[in-house]
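Consider the following assembly input.
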Amino acid sequence: MGSLSKKDLKLITDPLADNNPITIQVLGICSALAITAELKASIVMSVAVLFVMGLGNLTISLMRNIIPSKIRIIVQLIVVATLVIIVDLVLKAFAYELSKTLSVFVGLIITNCIIMGRFEAFALANGPIRSFIDGVGNALGYAVILIIVGFFRELLGSGTLLGFKVLGDPIEKTGVYAFGYENNGFMLLAPMALVTVGIIIWVQRSRNNSLIEEN
Amino acid sequence: MAKNTDSNGYTIVFATAMVLIVGTLLAFMASSLKEKIAENKRIEKQQNILYAMGVNNNDETSVEFVSKKDVESDFSTYIVKQIVIEGEKETENDKAYLIDIKKEAAAAKDPSYVRKLPLFIGEKDNKEYYIVPVRGKGLWDAIWGYVALDNQLVIQGVYFDHAGETPGLGSNIKERFFMDDFTGEHIMDGDTFKGVAVSKGNADPKNLRKTDFAVDAISGSTITGDGLAAMLKKDLKLYIPYLQNLKK
């Protein structure tokens, strides 16, 4: 297929910044709040969504001319659910430990609004290759925000990153804890994820005025 | 497109075909992978039981089971006896670890049913371990685990797992910093059964007090923690009449 055309490349770069699914389209907030208390969970979820969105967009795009418009939402839901269940079954049989880490995310992936949003907005109207690229792009945009939020919540909430105690030990009082620093347990709760996403939106809009809506 | 994809007839045909295709595909996948999945679950059970009694490949902070390759032989080396307790009577059964705790608990709601209680007796370095399976409810879904006791009914190790607790919060019950706190905790106050509570603000974060019947809770996972404490209370209690006899 050669190198990507400029138009195709935009499908990947746009969702990373100026058309980010979370901060601009405000989709997929539910899972962004639920699972970002830890960086590791954010990464696992991002990879899973990347996989399902790429393949889902591809499948829907291939079927786009035969899907009856009256039941298209149901058809989309079935495609996502089938993909997720197949992946879950295969992992359970061949990579059992990995499947245990992923199992809690399965429900969250099926109901992720970004996936349905991209099927509706893009895959139903575009060819399979472009749809696939669009799915990957949007999943990456989702991943960036998830990882940023997960990074700050784990660092400030638990004082760890990927489980490593980067700030010292809060019980033994080493590292920054020796100077009276305390973990902010509030960061681990869902409301602070919303505040963190809010701050990201604020920073992004103050850097790029064209994103601010006129009233 | 020549086809009219909006007609009712086409919609019904499409929906039927899609359901048939997807249904067949999933049923085929599920049944062809069933045996492999069941085998994985069986191995996991053995690994979990061994983990609770301290047979594992842990380093400083990781949770590492004995390898899949060694699990069969380790299980037969370290687990010297498996028994099933039914009321007053106890029978030896080397398939006891396959008893479905969930089904037994459901059946036991009928008062005339005598519940089968599996108990695994392990031996390591000339010390005996009594490993009790437990199962309860967390915030979203089931939680379960194995608790290894010595003959004085002091906890020697635990393993907990869950089906769908919140990642980063309730899911931490299967992390070392939480599970390790249980080691050395007492569950009996004299002859009275107390269990182990998961308590907030018990001012003992290093878990130095082993006879306070409590371990430090995880922030943000109150309901998972409470469910875990309730599970220990409910299921360990069932074994107390049998285990009390060992003490004497």
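Chain B is about 40% helix and 25% strand. Ask yourself how this observation constrains the way the partners meet.
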